[in-house]
Amino acid sequence: MKALALSIALLVTVREGGDVQPLVQQLAAYDANTLASELSDEAARRAFWLNCYNAFVQILLEEKKPDLTRDEVRRDFFQQPAITVAGLKLSLNDIEHGMLRHSKIWWSGGYITDPFPDRWQRRLRVPLDYRIHFALNCGATSCPPIRNYSAEELDEELRVAEAFFLDTETRVDTSECIIYASSIFNWFNGDFGGYDGVKKLILRHHGFAPDMHRHYRLEFTPYDWTVYEHYFSP
Fold it and tell me: Which residues lie closer than 8 Å to 57 by C-beta, 6 or more apart?
């Protein structure tokens, strides 16, 4: 089974409650050079890492039973290298910030890139597409739903994920000139072009002229870190 198909099969098996271990072992035993060759296409690479991240979050939640509302537990959950892909030991942070956010340093808001990523991260990462933030499910109540991602339909799949998240997690109050938004837009504002970029994105989605952003201020809603497993889209 090729790499992208394997990532989809793993996520489907998680969703259906099947035995994931044979697929986990196949992914761990994959040849790294073969993986890089099969994921030479940017869309395939991005879809692969999205599927892997979402699948392994669910697998690790089941194994570890973490209380993600506790800062130290949450930090360990995302930073621990508990995932093996093609012989490479990775953490959830490695996948999110290294592979999917093009080696961004996680605490920098999207403004600082790691100057010394390892060779495999350089080979297997993808340029940042801000829409990944609407596709990654970190196992908390405030996360977006989980979907399968493919290479062929990735742009449309991410468009749907973006529209759903902006519909459900943002709101424009015209009477008070406030844009209410998920804390994701605060933590990673640089990925969206800064706070002005965040405002323009949300205003455009809700049918307002983006250049109205100067008249609005942002207010970020608290993130609910209560564990919410198996939040798959219908």
Answer: 92, 137, 138, 139
**221-230, pLDDT tens digit by residue?**
999 999 999 9
Classify strands 178-182 and 217-221 as parallel, antiparallel or unpaired: parallel
Amino acid identity at 99: M
**Residue pair 39/4 in contact by the 8 Å Cβ criterion:** yes
Q: Give the per-residue pLDDT at 1.
A: 86
Q: What is the DSSP string of 101-157?
A: TTSB-GGGTT--B-S---HHHHHH-----GGGGGT---SBTTSPPB----STTHHHH
Residue pair 128/104 in contact (Cβ under 8 Å)? The answer is yes
The torsion angles phi and psi of 165, rounded to 5 degrees, stand at: -65, -45
Our measurement of the distance from residue 89's CA atom to the centroid of its chain's CA atoms, rounded to an integer in Å, reads 19
For 3, the 3-state DSSP assignment is: helix
Residues 58-76, mean pLDDT to the nearest whole number: 98
